[in-house]
Amino acid sequence: MRSVGIIAEYNPLHTGHKYHIQKARRMANADYTVVVMSPDFVQRGTPAIFDKYTRTRMALLAGADLVLELPICYATGSAEYFARGAIGMLDALGCVDTVCFGSETADGNLLSQLADILVLEPPVYQDVLRREQKAGKTFPQARATALAAVLADRDNEFLRQLSMPNNILALEYCKALQQLSSSILPLPILRQGNGYHDEALSDTFCSATALREALLQGQGPEEIQIKQRNLTSLLSYIPETCHPLFLKAARAPVTADDFLPLLIDKLLTISDFSGYFDISPELSDRIRKLRFSCIGKSFAEITALLKTRQLTEARIRRALLHLTLDLQQSSLSCFWVNGTVFYARLLGFKKNAGPLLHAIRHSANIPLLAKPSNAETILKNFYSKQPDRLSCALEMLRMDFLASHRYEGVSSYKYNREFVPEFKKSPIIIE
Asked: Is 27 helix (H, G, I), strand (E, B) or coil?
């Protein structure tokens, strides 16, 4: 039995994602496709437009066999943390043969060569990286220049595109595989269609960014009104099997502005923000000085207000989200030291994926959590002789549940529906 891993957000899922799932299975000659997916919040530092269970169902309908939840601390972290958490989970399963990801190049040897540099950090790389950052470049820009300097003898277009999101993640996936000494083989696939951040709906394979922008057009500050014709016009970018689900979910999207009351409460009640993940002492001081100026502004306006030459908007968004979700740096540091991931949370699977589930239960070195209601008990039994890992596992689970509850709370209030606690939910199962 062969299985291929995919790391995704599906925010939202579109035809390009279905193409990726199908091609990954063919290229890897895999019997099963395992997806590690972001939960209710994503790496760009915002809530997912649809909840994780809706996106899980769409993934299964689009061809995935099993969907696992990436813990919130990694799902909302930098590319390095995002990749390390996702690759760490796939590696811990013990039955994933390859991981397939999009890139601006399908040259796996080049990706591995670049990943070697990132792991070893030779002097030339370090010197150029420091120089570029001191000159005011963002970290992705500085790193791209430093990598190009190490490979100065190579004239490759990819080297001029290293700061692009798909390439950043591709490199981090390869780097994480090396750091973990994983047996999983990287399988890059050339990206098709529009770019990651492209807002145009011009190709069959549009970007998720373009879809989100189209979905949220014409929103008022108090409620969302999306016309039927506008939704229908987007269906050509959505797999046909997902059309009914998409039309239903598109009438109740969640945005970053929905979480402003939670963020503002943090800004007004905390004086030192440096204990939160992704918030340096310098950024903490900047937030403290400008926090009153944030009142009454949108999330995008707050992000723009706090941005500097050295800090990207994505970094600012993630920092504010970590503050909103109460994600502490001390907890993440503890996770990193004690094993990265401590469980695999099952969000959904196909009924015919029984052999895959059986393989995971017998080969994984972390527990598989199927039902949130008994997750804590399973963790206590699994780590009964490993107190440090048990403490990390319980803290990670607490963070995941808290994030889910805050998303569910905001969504249920916004759309006047019943709040359903995470421990009452079950994995999505489809035929």
From this structure: helix
DSSP reduced 3-state for 93: helix
Question: Is the whole model's pTM more than 0.90, yes or no?
Answer: yes
Q: Model confidence at 203, in pLDDT bands (50, 70, 90)?
A: low
Beta strand 98-103 pairing with 32-37: unpaired
pLDDT, residue 246, reads 95
294-329 pLDDT, tens digit per residue, is 999 999 999 999 998 878 899 999 999 999 999 999
DSSP state string for 120-158: H--HHHHHHHHHHHHTT--HHHHHHHHHHHHTTT---GG
**114-173 confidence digits (pLDDT tens):** 889 899 999 999 999 999 988 888 787 888 888 888 887 665 566 666 767 778 899 999
- Asked if 383 and 393 count as a contact pair (C-beta separation under 8 A), the reply is yes
The token pair at 122 is: 């030779």
Distance (Å, whole) CA 345 – CA 360: 12
Residues 6+ apart with CB under 8 A from 27: 4, 100, 187, 189
List Cβ neighbours of 402 (8 Å cut-off, separation of 6 or more).
325, 326
* Interacting residues of 282 by C-beta distance below 8 A, sequence separation 6+: none
Distance from C-alpha of 298 to C-alpha of 279, rounded to nearest angstrom: 20
Q: Which of 348, 402, 400 is nearest to 72 (CA)?
A: 400
* Residue 289 to residue 371: CA distance in whole angstroms: 44
Phi, psi of 22 (to 5 degrees): -65, -45
Q: How many helices (H) and strands (E) does the chain have?
A: 19, 8
Task: Between 98 and 224, name the one with better pLDDT.
Answer: 98
CA atoms within 13 A on the CB side of 299: 24
| Cα–Cα distance for residue pair 277/303, rounded to 1 Å | 16
Question: Residue holding tokens 């269906």?
Answer: 235
d(CA 346, CA 67): 6
Query: What is the DSSP secondary-structure string of 319-344?
Result: HHHHHHHT-BHHHHHHHHHHTS---E
Query: d(Cα 91, Cα 387) in Å, to the nearest integer?
Result: 22
Pair 326, 76: CB distance under 8 Å = no
